[in-house]
Amino acid sequence: MKLLTFKGGVHPPEKKELSKDSPLETFRIPEKVYLYLVQSAGSPPKLLVEKGEEVKTAQKIAEASSLISANLHSPVTGVVEDITKMFHPVLGAPSDLLVIKRTSEKDEWELLEPIDFESSDPKILIERVKEAGIVGLGGAAFPTHVKLSPPKEIDTLIINGAECEPYLTVDHRLMLEKTEELIVGIKIIMKILNVKKAVIGVENNKKDAIDALKKFSGEGIEVVALKTKYPQGAEKQLIKAILNREVPSGGLPMDVKVVVQNVGTAVAIKEAVVDGKPLIERGLTVTGEGVKTPKNVVARIGTPIEELIDFAGGYNGEVDRVVLGGPMMGIAVPNTSIPTMKGTSGILVLTKEVTGSIYTRNCIRCGRCVEACPMNLRPNVLYKLVQAKKYDEAVSEGLFDCIECGSCAYICPSKIDHVRHLKLGKKVYRALRRGK
Predict the structure, then answer these.
(1) CA–CA gap between residue 310 and residue 211 (Å, rounded)
(2) Residue ranges of the domains in the chain?
(3) Average pLDDT, the chain
(4) Residue 20 burial class via C-beta count within 10 angstroms: exposed 0-12, middle 13-18, buried 19 and up
(5) CATH of domain 113-274
(6) Model confidence pTM above 0.90
């Protein structure tokens, strides 16, 4: 079997064995859910409910406020107990938060009307994706209805089943356990985009998923095996590996006639269109050496991560940090009262034995970060330019082409956290150039 891949990248320990054989388990309905108003890239939605108001499961409680924004729905049947603020790990600052207290043991649903996608106009399907509040479930949380409305012609849909982040296995389980739902979701997306070709890319460490999906190949849907390498699942690397097309600097996949969607997003689209169910829950992996029984879980959005850690058997050993997402691109959280969000693909609990002591040393100019960079950048040069506050030079060097995958930091023998500095450089540059 030919394995498709790209230039650069790294090979961190996979750690998939901790949870890959754990079937999806549905977590109970929480007593309370804590919903950040900001659940996606773009503008926060406009709140539609007030404190003390009763809500039903799947009821729209906040409405998209601009083109790049996403609706928000109640994950439970209950009452809006409070509207307050809580530290948002993605924004790095306090953010508006709804606290909804469950008042019924069972859901009282407010579902959308199911749609027969095969006989429906693509515009109706896009509107349903928007109404359901679907965002990219691979981690970026970009509003999906925007991504499915490209102003350019598209000839290929790529479904990202790579799941290249170490530890995370929820997409693997979705491909195995919700294969038919995934295929239906792909067909809906193909109709929306008016494309005849879809390719599902899966890393070769998930051979059982490749075999399961190949039973449904044909009718314009192809399954390809990808070399197991990080960041194989990044959009530009996926497109290069599968189609040998290069997204231009500063460009988007649509510039090479491609749209990329995550496995979980495709399943959510099926549920929204065929079942009338908005995005109120998602699959995620609770894993790491720091939990006793790593699991793949389907949980309501807004569930405190401490409850999901307890569901995975509680802590194991001396815990050093808890991360939302994977170890390469995830975000460490200050406490476990933080709730899950639409973009939360995993909860990773790491022990001190695993993380070890990290002492940063000076760059030794070994060039490993340059070899590893999947975007063909020079992370060592970018890092030094940002340190020297030479932001214009850093941008000219390709600062905004960095996808923040962390390959450079992983491979660096001096343990320099390039990504942290490059993120800061982008933020400072945007602030300095705001309005110009």
Answers:
(1) 34
(2) 113-274, 368-432
(3) 95
(4) buried
(5) 3.40.50.11540
(6) yes
